[in-house]
Design goal:
Blueprint (H helix, E strand, L loop, with lengths): L5 E5 L5 H7 L8 E5 L21 E8 L11 H12 L7 E3 L3 E4 L2 E13 L2 E11 L16 H5 L5 H15 L6 H11 L10 E6 L4 E10 L5 E5 L4 E5 L4 E3 L2
Length: 248
Amino acid sequence: MEKNFGIKWLDEIDSTNSEALRHIEELDNLSVIAARNQTAGRGQRGNRWVVEPGANLTFSLVLKFAPGELRVADFFSITEAAAVAMARLPMVDARIKWPNDIYVRDRKLCGMLIENGSAGEWLTYSVVGIGLNVNQTAFDPELTNPTSLKKISGKDYSTDEILGIILTEFGRLLPLLRTEEGRASLHGIYDSDILYRKGIRSRYRDNLRDTEFEGIIKGVARNGRLMIENCTENRSETYAFKELSFFI
């Protein structure tokens, strides 16, 4: 499947997502921009993604959609495809921490930033930015729970080879985005025991009410909202991204 992707490696760039967006008009579907070093990597809601030069894998995958192919309302299917692809890394037993972080035993291995373009109710493109900790073992002490493939296994990895493994999995999953049946199948994969803490009673913070509670993740709706049973107050809740925080 990797042969379907057009990969461009850069020694250094501010952000692979920013670079993809700067050239979005001329980039083809399945273009990949990968960097040995990012100087201003971006995460969700303005968070920075800090990497050790040459030690990790940072890349952005460009998806283009034909008019009438994928509705803006179905954007979470892209998140599901990306998260499932990353959680299926064969060298670790990973889980998806809603909505799209990849965790191994309560440690963050991978994060992503997905930025979309649209015309009316239809998506025109998506830039899927991935940051995977590969060979880095020392992290900024302000980061509370990072890990890497090397920290988990004790082995060094080739970032080129890891990218090939990831793109092969993307190649299997991306066709599911193109049909309603495929998107339903993809959601079923995402909303399974691959979801971090699903069915396990844990502590959370409701950021809207500024309260803490014990709850059980029941699943994720098709629109991406997290469904959780609030055991403290004996009621069911749904949350959008950033409305709920995990205690790790």
